[in-house]
Amino acid sequence: MSSSYLLIIVLMAASWAIQWRLRSKFKQYAQVGLSSGLSGAEIATKMLADHGIYDVRIISTAGQLTDHYNPTDKTVNLSEGVYAERSAAAAAIAAHECGHAVQHATAYSMLQFRSALVPTLSAVSRFMPWILMAGILMLRTSIIPLGVGIGLFALTTLFSFITLPVEFDASRRALAWMDRRGVVTVQEHAMAKDALWWAAMTYVVAALASLATLLYYVGIFLRRR
């Protein structure tokens, strides 16, 4: 059990360190003006148009690093800084989110699978922690509640791992388009690639942390059988 605790703590520390590094990278690259002079919103507009996508809206949303693509209402949501900013960081984020829009438009299988799980996971996340807690408390009388909780938690872990190819593919599409279109210089392309790599690492660590937590609960379950 101590090794499980240690692994979870290490992954939590790694998550914090990567989040800090990610913010540091984006802050650094946000200071580098884009040679093309394009804003994040203009980058997004060009990438969508180049892929023949005209039914996706690009909107500004509050916050920092709150950028995301919403397949439900077909919107590329760019944080206020990214939307108006003309930097290597803004270009990377805007193109990445448009990468998700391209995935949606081309029926990318992993995105479809991930989207299909969202309604179920939204419902599960409401009561899963309570079931796990009840399962731990009721271990002496029944292992069934904990078994159910583990099954539900396994779905969230699966979702975390399905997210990985979706995120890596969106970054790949973004970088390939920026290189092909020539909207960034070689140096700016390297910055965008570095920033997106650190962003992807946050998802990797989150998936590993979810797996470690799942194994922790499985360990408890097996010891009580």
UniProtKB/TrEMBL annotation:
It holds the Pfam family Zn_peptidase_2. Keywords: Membrane, Transmembrane, Transmembrane helix. The chain crosses the membrane at residues 146-166, 195-222. This is Zinc metallopeptidase. It comes from Hymenobacter segetis.
